[in-house]
Amino acid sequence: QVQLVESGGGLVQPGGSLRLSCAASASIFRFNTMGWYRQAPGMEREWVAHITSSHSTYYADSVKGRFTISRDNAKNMVLLQMNGLKPEDTAVYYCNMRTTWGQGTQVTVSS
């Protein structure tokens, strides 16, 4: 069974940057689309971005131009570089592959 482990969350001031990482436990990672989602308190989980096995990338309008998703198939990892962070980006961020989810990593944007 594939496991996904996120890291890199934390507290950052508005305008700051964070880089989230997601490590997958299986080599089938390289054949799958990988996604990042987030869930703010009291809100539904929402899609943030995803990257296909051929490295095509797609972003929610709310993060386009500020976030960059990438993958390193040699390391079975997917990254989310987040720049220009806003308080409304505060959420638990989850990595996803098919029906598998990571445990989430908290991102808090506050002054």
Folded structure, characterized:
This protein is mainly beta. 0% of the residues lie in helices and 50% in strands. The protein has no helices and eleven strands. The protein has strands at residues 4-7, 10-12, 18-24, 34-39, 46-51, 57-59, 67-72, 77-82, 91-97, 100-101, 105-109. The strands form two sheets. Strands 2, 4, 5, 6, 9, 10 and 11 form a seven-stranded mixed β-sheet that branches. The chain has a four-stranded antiparallel β-sheet with strand order 1-3-8-7, with no helix packed on it. A hairpin with a 2-residue loop joins strand 9 (91-97) and strand 10. The model has no long low-confidence stretch (mean pLDDT 96).
Q: Count of DSSP helices?
A: 0
Mean pLDDT: 96
Main sheet record: 7 strands, mixed
The radius of gyration computed from the alpha-carbon positions, rounded to a whole number of angstroms, is: 13 Å
Tertiary shape:
globular
The H-and-E topology, N to C, reads as EEEEEEEEEEE
Q: What portion of residues is helical?
A: under 10%
Q: How many β-strands, per DSSP?
A: 11
Strand content: over 45%
Structural class: mainly beta
Give the termini separation.
40 Å
Unreliable residue runs: none
Question: Which features characterize this protein?
Answer:
111 residues, mainly beta, seven-stranded mixed sheet, four-stranded antiparallel sheet, 11 strands, globular
Quickly describe the structure.
This protein is mostly beta strands. It has no helices and eleven strands.
